[in-house]
Amino acid sequence: MKNNIITVMRKEFARFFGDTRMLIMLLLPAVMIYLVYSFMGSALQNMLAPDEAYEPAVYVVNLPNSLRKAGLYGSVLSIEWDEADGTWEQVAGREADLLVIFPEDFDNKVAAFDVQTATGPAPNIEIYFNSANLDSLRVYETMVAFLDAHEATLANKWDINRDFTGGDLATQEDASATFIASLMPLLLLMFLYSGCMGLAPESIAGEKERGTIGALLVSPLKRGQLAMGKIFSLGILAFLSGLISALATILSLPKLMGAEGGISVDIYGASDYISLALVILSTILLLITLISIISAFSKTVKEATAAVTPLMIVVLLVGVTGMFGGSSTGTAGYLIPLYNSVQSMSGIFSLDYSAASVALTTASNLVFAFIGGFILTRMFNSERIMFNK
């Protein structure tokens, strides 16, 4: 029995690796992921990075002496009221970055305003900017921060974290783990599904469409061995496809986030990778079994591709749950197919998981894959299903 299953697996490997198109389909997604993510990271970094040599065009009406002495942000040009409308149009037309209008006699109004006894609103500063212009948006944000800081000096009753940079106790490893855990489970599940989707319909529905399945079914090979051989071989190929795509994603993450983003995968150890491999392998066997069952019902590859669309939607929706953190459903959550895989991967990537949750997820997926394999074997034994009678 073992030799027969290995024979089927060798046949599938020979068919896959002997077809240049299949190899290209295996490598192309990973190459595209790396190039696209790297390009997006470089483009965003260039677009959002401030130009140190840029001189903002800031126009101010009624510039107060207090802010002039405090060193109002940037090189400002004081203008009169009758010039404000023209400057407003310049900001709207991206010819100027900012228009700031202070109330007349601003300093005296601020000095006279008392929060406890005031009967009216505080002096209001009008700031006009153009958010469609990144330079204008950056100048606006910097100006607001400057004004807020200056306002705080007028009634400085206490300080917060004055003598150190902050009280955030999260390490760089924590930040990296949190970000990766929110993104990678969804991406990994989609990569694994894509790898299975690109293999199972061609191997089963494709054999039926070409008429070659009949030769295999009438051979001395038991149909159960044929089903198991296809599941194992397709699972290995799907794992290879998912692994290549995942590596491409991990390698491109630092470029996508920018060099200063601090995203690193060096925080994971051997036990983390072993746990992840167990979850991924069991998930692949489950996915390849499900898609193989659907493909066995189909007459052509096109029909099988259309039939697995609902499963793709389910995979996508389940993958999104990984963006909201680990499972909070307890033991029962690790018994739900696919959902358990996402929650386990999220826990592994966030470095907040247990060996029991990984073992439960792996065992659960293998049980469901075994049940699916049994169903597929019964389907292979059905002349009506395999020969579309």
Following the backbone from N to C, one meets helices and strands in this order, namely HHEHEHEHEHHHHHHHHHHHH
Query: How many helical elements?
Result: 17
Number of strands: 4
| Low-confidence residue ranges | none
Estimated radius of gyration:
31 Å
Shape: elongated
Structural class assignment: mainly alpha
Give helix % range: 55-70%
What would the average pLDDT be, to the nearest integer? Answer: 78
Terminal CA distance reads 29 Å
Largest beta sheet: strand ordering = 2-1-3-4
Strand content: under 5%
Outline the biggest β-sheet: 4 strands, mixed
Would you kindly provide a written description of the structure presented here, covering whatever features stand out?
The protein is mainly alpha-helical and 389 residues long. The protein is built from 17 helices and 4 strands. It has helices at residues 2-17, 20-48, 65-70, 84-92, 106-112, 134-154, 172-197, 200-203, 205-210, 213-217, 223-257, 270-297, 301-307, 309-320, 339-349, 355-380, 383-386; strands at residues 58-61, 76-79, 98-101, 126-128. Helix 7 (172-197) runs antiparallel to helix 15 and helix 11 (223-257) packs across helix 12. The longest helix is centred in the middle third of the chain and has 35 residues, at 223-257. The mean pLDDT is 78.
